[in-house]
Design a protein that fits this description.
The structure is a single chain. It contains two helices and ten strands. By secondary structure, the chain is mainly β. It has a five-stranded mixed β-barrel with strand order 4-7-8-10-9. It has a three-stranded antiparallel sheet with strand order 2-1-3, with helices on one face. The protein has a two-stranded antiparallel ribbon with strand order 5-6. The termini are far apart. About 10% of the residues lie in helices and about 35% in strands. β5 and β6 form a beta hairpin.
Length: about 140
């Protein structure tokens, strides 16, 4: 009978700087709390799509407002500063001025329902555990 394998726990951390290329204007705008969409073939996309022929897209600034289409509540996801947030939700949002929808997060989803209005939020975008996720907050 063979001996059982010995295992050890190894904690590793990897940091990598990934260039964002043609999408850099979109991610720069997110860091500033702005919603930048791309327009091509007569449609406006947020998040943006790049033209397949390699040409740069036409960039269009949106208001950052959108409407909740669907909600999935996820208990225990980390909040904006890493603390547990028991009222977090993943939301499908139709952004004003865009022809597609986007998935994002809302950290305080109590009483959030389809049809509620949301605003893109810089503070919510800077969630350490999810640096590229879109964050939203309730729009009054």
């Amino acid at each position: 009978m063979p001996e059982s394998a010995v295992t050890i726990a190894v904690d590793m951390q990897l940091q990598y700087r990934h260039p964002l290329g043609a999408l850099s204007p979109y991610f720069r705008a997110l860091q500033e709390g702005r919603a930048l969409a791309s327009r091509w073939r007569g449609r406006t996309y947020f998040p943006p799509r790049l033209p397949p022929d390699g040409r740069p897209p036409e960039w269009v600034e949106l208001t950052g407002l959108g409407t909740v289409i669907a909600i999935t509540r996820a208990h225990g996801l980390p909040g904006p500063t890493g603390e547990a947030a028991t009222t977090s939700a993943c939301v499908l949002v139709a952004m004003d001025g865009a022809g597609n929808m986007v998935v994002g997060r809302v950290h305080d989803s109590r009483s959030l329902q389809p049809g509620c209005r949301l605003q893109l939020s810089v503070a919510e975008n800077l969630t350490p555990a999810f640096p590229l996720s879109l964050g939203f907050k309730r729009f009054a």
